[in-house]
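Protein entry
_____________
===
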Amino acid sequence: MNMEENRDEGRDSFKVNKLTFWKSLTGILGVLFVLAFFNVVDLGENSGPTGAAVVAPDTQIPTAPPEKQDVKYDGAPILGEEDAPVTIVEFSDFQCPYCARFFEQTFPQLKENYIKTGKVKLAFRHLPLSFHQYAQKTAEASECANEQGKFWEYHDTVFNNQDQLSDTILSTWAGEIGLDVKKFDDCLESGKYKEKVQADSNDAGSYGVSGTPSFFINGKLLVGAQPYEAFQQVIDAEL
């Protein structure tokens, strides 16, 4: 074999190696492209904030509620003077931890500084959330307590002992606050307030409420277990 033949073989070998290299590179780039594509799609699907609801494209997004709404509270238990210039309508869930936080941290000051002084009355309406096991029945139990004139005593007892909620404790609490337990049990077992509680929940939805606790202060919506100062600011602006 002469030197010319060796050079020809070298060139052929180089061509084969070069072709193999480009085929391999093309394959690798193709795999990387596919992986990159699916990673981008995945990021796009999960790019929203944690815990935020994603609205489907064909779902109509509700418009924001007006600054003030005419929120009804007929038949709701009321704490305070009927003619108080400011009305707070609360939508609450007896098993909601944030509702308990409001009760513990904010409600005492509101009661002392505004309700007892005749400036504010508080109307309580129900919004038991479906994922709270005892919320619906406890709401009905509070209405049975209201029948005997002790809604607020029952309300306070539930929130003070929220971590003890169970199917059997509702009757025990009724006895502790001096209710006729037989009447209370009969009332609760009859389910007579199930529709009232459901009506409250339906109304909450019509007002744009989707979580608890939510408050309407003379029709102005305030959401969550806000600190006392947040309530104070809105109330004072209404006085």
Q: What stands out?
A: Confidence is low (pLDDT under 50) at residues 2-16, 31-65. The beta strands are 78-79, 86-92, 120-126, 214-217, 220-223. DSSP finds nine helices and five strands in the chain.
